[in-house]
Design brief:
single chain; alpha/beta; Rossmann fold; GMP Synthetase, Chain A, domain 3; eight-stranded mixed sheet; four-stranded antiparallel sheet; 11 helices; 20 strands; about 30% helix; globular
Length: about 425
């Protein structure tokens, strides 16, 4: 283990509470190591740096990364087999994952087991900061959790029930198991909510619900907290890097996991986003050496907070996960509208249980609404009017009530689908 790795684990627990300048110094040291590693051992990056006229010693830290080109999924898909793997890595002994591909662009990523456990530790630390105690039992709706040393010691226990079975069966299995924290994607919990009211889960006095993997709407959060009687905490992650940010239970912002990723928010004109500005999220994975990811654009739009909030956690922050880059709507006047403001309008209307916004052309939107008690003509009119205020004159908004809103092949709820001509990926 290198001196840098020893320093990482020695300061792991306290690093979120360090002053921002000390966190930046840590990031800069990891970035220097990553850049030199990629130059020496990864053919793709060596060629990329040479094409940009950059020598590795010129990248001294995060501020210098802007000199390198942004890495896209299209770049990764264009690579030849093995070109992204570091020299000497035995791919057969690594773990491989496929990104969900909700934009039609799934990509395969490779990590060593040591890298996987490191990223798992960062997520576990965020859960502890969100209220998880070592003796709490977690229950996950989905795939089986990673088994690590703490689990074998009886700490941070985690069990799972499959999400690939009827919802009544999921509930039946949950009722038979004892747990303190429930972990699941928001859409699964939203579907189960009507069943929760008739179950014994409310009497369990759960301590937390941890959500992730897709957008958590304000309406779903409110219903979950009212039904289960506990706080809901949102975790923002990506297959490529595991945890990106988590919702702080103290200040309400999403703290970026700064000792696992170096996060940039890039505006449409290529600037680093300032206070209150939206931009595309670009990540450099600080612990991925088998398959480095340097200035990788994951396809999400986020927003920087308009003003700082007092918090003892010194990591950076975003205040909203806006949506996919692909979900920005092209308008007839040539402008683009981010989905955030449309989503906020829909979430503010009483009686909207779930919704989906489908742009059928630059001048036409269809809004599917899965209603609940309280939604009628008045609410539909307010919803239409709220959208029309955000759109240019002449854009038609149609509200349609539906019994159900289907999920993607990856089991997620895609709230906004932007028009892309003949539905190009």
């Amino acid at each position: 283990m290198s001196g840098l790795e020893i320093r990482h684990w020695a300061g792991f627990a306290q690093r979120p509470f360090l002053a921002p300048e000390r966190v930046r110094a840590y990031q800069d040291a990891r970035i220097r190591r990553l850049i030199h590693h990629a130059w020496r051992n990864v053919a793709f990056y060596r060629r990329r740096f040479e094409d940009a006229g950059i020598r590795p010693e010129e990248i001294r830290g995060g501020a210098d990364l802007q000199r390198l080109p942004i890495l896209t999924k299209a770049d990764l898909r264009a690579c030849r087999d093995g070109e992204l793997l570091a020299r000497g890595v035995d791919e057969a002994s690594c773990l491989a994952e496929i990104s969900s591909g909700t934009t039609g662009e799934p990509v395969r990523f490779v990590r060593t087991r040591g890298e996987e456990y490191t990223l798992f530790a960062h997520r576990l630390r965020a859960e502890v900061l969100s209220g998880l105690r070592p003796w709490d039992a977690r229950m996950k709706i989905g795939s089986a959790p990673v088994r690590t040393l703490p689990h074998r010691l009886g700490l941070f226990r985690c069990d799972a029930v499959s999400d690939g079975q009827p919802h009544t069966q999921i509930l039946a299995e949950l009722e038979k198991k004892r747990f303190d924290v429930l972990c699941a994607m928001p859409n699964i919990l939203d579907i189960l909510l009507p069943l929760f009211g008739e179950s014994n889960l409310r009497s369990r006095k759960l301590r937390r619900v941890f959500c992730g993997a897709e957008l958590l709407t304000g309406a779903t959060r409110k219903r979950l907290e009212e039904t289960l009687g506990c706080r809901v905490v949102d975790f923002y992650g990506a297959t490529e890097v595991n945890l990106v940010a988590w919702e702080c239970v103290r200040c309400g912002l999403y703290h970026t996991c700064d000792d696992a990723v170096y996060a940039e928010v890039i505006t449409e004109d290529g600037r680093q986003a300032g206070a209150g500005e939206e931009g595309s999220l670009v990540l450099t994975a600080l612990h991925s050496f088998a398959m480095p990811l340097i200035r990788y654009e994951i396809g999400d739009v986020v927003r920087r907070p308009a003003a700082p909030r007092g918090c003892r956690i010194g990591f950076g922050a975003i205040d909203k996960i806006v949506g996919r880059v692909a979900d920005h709507l092209p308008l007839p006047d040539g402008q683009w509208l981010g989905p955030c403001r449309l989503i906020e309008v829909a979430q503010s209307i009483e009686g909207v249980r779930r919704f989906r916004i489908v742009q059928t052309s630059p001048a036409s939107l269809e809004v599917e609404v899965q209603r609940e008690e309280g939604f009628g003509e008045e609410q539909a009119g307010r919803l239409r009017g709220g959208f029309e205020k955000l759109l240019p004159a002449g854009v038609r908004v149609e509200i349609r009530e539906v019994d159900d809103i289907p999920l993607t092949a990856g089991g997620k709820l895609r709230i906004v689908e932007a028009w892309r001509g003949a539905r190009e990926p």
